[in-house]
Design goal:
six-stranded antiparallel β-sheet; 32 strands; single chain; mainly beta; about 475 residues; about 0% helix; Methylamine Dehydrogenase, Chain H
């Protein structure tokens, strides 16, 4: 797949009269993997923002190779708030849109972006239109079960509880309303996930966690697809004092659930694991001693994700407000050293971390970053590794918006609740290995799906380039 520069033999003959001596010159062109021009707003780097572009001393091979990559985004045509997202088994992408559904409910916006290759032509429309729509909620949340394709819509109401609805046909119809709440506690900052652990009543197990009246998150499980839920119980060891704000919950192929937030001691970040659907939890400290923890709105959260074989990836913001990453290949029992993954550019800080993994050895990170300078400029970034477990993984970062098209210019946007970004963002990998990052273009007040219009797949045993998508950007807002 790559052009290898071979030694060229250049022979010139100088003739004196009819005859002369042949003179040969050999010009050796150095072998290189950098056989393409570096795209604008794309950076190739190692950990700690060390520039890798043009490096011919490091031995790039196998999966740890540079690939052409560029980023873009596509507007959904409506505003969003805390935009969670999902991808169904029919390649339908969904995102929440706060207050834009029937009777002011939370809309579930469905977009047919996957497979758009020939021209910039796609549609986004609300698919939530039940006979009795649920009133708009404080924290809208949508999740798609990756094993069954069920769309689960969770609505939190004035800190008092949550209503649950689901669709098994991409939003064409919705289940009756069920209630997932516990009168003993307020409900805030919910997060939902599933695992492929089957039960007698449903092929997958569901769980949600909330910030409630406890020194740590409270969690509840469903074994019948969301119709009924267990009483909320500790989402951490009983003596844990982590605080209740938790990052996105994630379910693994091995039946485990993981979530991340402050450590039980109140310091550092930890990943919390349950192997029995929330009956008990164990704490697994992340290697944050050198990075520290961010002193910002995002300080409570360490995002966590699993790949197709259950390897765990964690992402957090350090005290320097830069993104860090560590992974575990033994269900969180031990962790790799922390890796600072920001690109070699003039970022003064980052926020709103999200992480997703594809097949084994691939991982991608989404975040917003502030450009140094007199004016506040916040851009959106995606960073990926195709050989995550390499001793020196190559990282590729793309800026998803142009320099003249920032997503926000509000002071400290990435460190606070900022416009449509709310408290959190979301990220997924589709069946073909393309990464999709849901966030808000706050200046336009439009929800956007951001992705690599040019780049490699995060699925498959070998790395290959995905079909190129038409660039989006401001024209889609």
């Amino acid at each position: 797949m790559r052009t290898i520069f071979l030694s060229l033999l250049m022979v010139s003959a100088s003739l004196a009269g009819c005859f002369g001596e042949e003179e040969s010159k050999t010009t050796v062109v150095e072998e290189t993997v950098w056989d393409f021009e570096r795209p604008e707003l794309t950076w190739y780097h190692f950990a700690d923002a060390i520039d890798a572009w043009g490096n011919n001393e490091y031995e790039f091979k196998d999966r740890n190779m540079p690939f052409v990559a560029t980023g873009t985004y596509y507007g959904i045509g409506m505003s969003t708030f805390e935009p969670t997202m999902g991808i169904t088994q029919t390649d339908t992408m969904v995102m929440t849109s706060w207050g834009n559904g029937p009777a002011g409910s939370t809309a579930i916006i469905s977009c047919d972006l996957i497979g758009m290759y020939d021209a910039l032509s796609y549609t986004c429309e609300n698919t939530y239109d039940p006979l009795i729509p649920v009133p708009n909620s404080n924290d809208p949340y949508v999740y798609v079960d990756p094993w069954t394709g069920r769309i689960m819509k969770f609505d939190m109401h004035a800190l008092l509880g949550m209503t649950v609805e689901w669709s098994d046909n991409d939003g064409d119809s919705w289940s009756p309303i069920t209630v997932a709440t516990d009168v003993r506690s307020v409900q805030d900052h919910q997060t939902i996930a599933s695992t492929n652990a089957p039960t007698a009543l449903h092929p997958t197990t569901w769980m949600f966690c909330i910030n409630g009246n406890a020194p740590h998150p409270l969690c509840s499980a469903s074994f019948d697809g969301g119709n009924t839920w267990t009483p909320e119980s500790s989402g951490a060891p009983i003596s844990c004092g982590s605080g209740g704000l938790t990052a996105h919950l994630v379910g693994s192929v091995d039946g485990n659930f993981y979530r991340g937030n402050t450590g039980c001691s109140g310091e550092g970040y930890s990943v919390y694991r349950t192997t029995n659907a929330g009956l008990t939890w164990t704490e697994h400290e992340l290697p944050t001693s050198e990075s520290g923890t961010a002193d910002t709105w995002n300080a409570e959260e360490a995002q966590v994700e699993v790949d197709s074989e259950g390897n765990v990836h964690a992402m957090w913001m350090g005290l320097d407000n830069m993104p860090y990453w560590s992974y575990s290949r033994d269900q969180g029992d031990t962790w790799s050293n922390a890796t600072m993954i920001a690109p070699p550019i003039n970022l003064s800080g980052t926020g709103f971390p999200v992480v997703v993994a594809g097949d084994v050895g691939t991982v991608a990170f989404g975040y917003v970053g502030e450009t140094e300078g007199e004016d506040e400029i916040w851009n959106a970034y995606l960073t990926y590794a195709t050989d995550a477990f390499n001793e020196t993984p190559l990282l590729t970062t793309v800026q998803l918006n142009g320099d003249d098209d920032p997503i926000d210019t509000v002071t400290d946007c990435g460190y606070n609740r900022c416009g449509g970004l709310g408290d959190f963002l979301d990220i997924r990998v589709d069946a073909y290995g393309r990464t999709w990052f849901s966030l808000s273009h706050n200046i336009a007040d439009i929800g956007i799906f951001a992705t690599f219009d040019v780049g490699p797949s995060l699925r498959g045993e070998t790395i290959f380039m995905l079909p190129e998508m038409p660039a989006g950007g401001p024209q889609t807002l």
